[in-house]
Design brief:
With about 280 residues, the protein is an alpha+beta fold. It has two domains: about 5-170 and about 220-280, Ribbon (Umud Fragment, subunit A), CATH 2.10.109.10; about 175-215, no CATH class. Helix content is about 15%, strand content about 30%. The chain has helices at about 5-25, 180-195, 235-240, 265-270, and strands spanning about 25-30, 45-50, 55, 70, 85, 105-110, 115-120, 120-125, 130, 165, 175, 200, 205, 210, 215, 220-225, 240, 245-255, 280. Strands 1, 2, 5, 6, 16, 17, 18 and 19 form an eight-stranded antiparallel beta sheet that branches. A four-stranded antiparallel beta sheet has the order 9-8-7-10, with no helix packed on it.
Length: about 280
């Protein structure tokens, strides 16, 4: 038996299987409490990447090494209430045409063209109250107007608990642009072009060097929020998520423990395993 040849064959088979699995599923570790108690910090969540289409890995599995990527959105789009994993588009004030391998997990609240309104923490979609997630968490409404500067897009006196009405961008829809609105939307528009195309000169707004008073969206977008409404960085703060940034749907918890315990305390770490969450289906 040629041991070297056998090992090479096994390694090739392992790499091939790893890539095939990566096309359909991935495991995502939850580092923040924005979805508690639906998803807990320390949960390892299995993500169905096939449900929304074919989405190849952007990085070599378990590394930060970028590889050629493609997607084929041939199946369904996210629906209201889905727990969605997506590439983080960047903070409101950031232009990041090539974001790092950072992914968020949130609940899809609004679809392209939906009107989202939040009044005293109650979410309305197209004028109707949105269904409450089973494990939703929130406290008293926040009315501090100083929070308006942190909201998206930042042109209104909104807070996390009193927000909108905001129309989720839909491909082909248009918004009016003036220096104020262009300043608020400029990074959002730049991301669609993957380069800095918005310029404001006095009272004139330019896109790709051409003066304009409106902008037509090139992508469909989805409005995402965490179930832990008071401790969630989401679309209220940095805007809706484009269809091309969506990775898949979180379907169940593979494993869970207290990831705040260091590996140096291995027995304490093992003792923190949450058996009741293993293989828990997510809703």
């Amino acid at each position: 038996m040629n041991v070297k040849k056998e090992l090479k064959s096994l390694l090739q088979a392992f790499i091939a299987a790893l890539f095939i699995i990566s096309f359909f599923f991935q495991n995502t570790r939850i580092p923040t409490p924005s979805m508690e108690s639906t998803i807990m910090v320390g949960d390892f969540v299995v993500v169905n990447k096939f449900i929304y289409g074919i989405n190849s890995p952007k990085f070599l599995p378990y590394t930060e090494v970028k590889i050629p990527h493609f997607r084929w959105d041939i199946f369904t789009d996210p629906d209201r209430g889905d727990i969605v994993v997506f590439d983080f588009p960047g903070e409101k004030g950031e232009f990041r045409p090539n974001p790092e391998n950072i992914q968020y997990v949130k609940r899809c609240i609004g679809l392209p063209g939906d009107t989202i309104t939040i009044r005293n923490k109650v979410v309305f979609v197209n004028g109707k109250p949105a269904p409450l997630p089973a494990h939703i968490q929130y406290k008293e409404p926040q009315t501090d107007s100083r929070l308006a500067g942190y909201m998206f897009p930042g042109t209104e006196n909104w807070t996390p608990d009193n927000f909108g009405p905001f129309v989720v961008p839909k491909k082909g829809a248009k918004i009016k642009l003036d220096p104020k609105t262009a300043f608020a939307w400029q990074n959002f528009i730049n991301r669609e072009f993957e380069e800095e195309v918005v310029k404001i000169d006095g009272n004139v707004v330019y896109i790709n060097g051409k003066p304009t008073t409106e902008y037509q969206f090139q992508e469909d977008y989805f409005f995402m929020m965490g179930d832990n409404r008071d401790d969630s960085s989401d679309s209220r703060f940095w805007g809706p998520v484009s269809r091309k940034m969506i990775v898949g749907e979180a379907i169940f918890v593979l494993f869970s423990w207290d990831n705040q315990i260091p590996f140096s305390q291995i027995f304490k770490l093992l003792g923190s395993i949450r058996g009741e969450r293993i293989l828990k289906i997510l809703h």
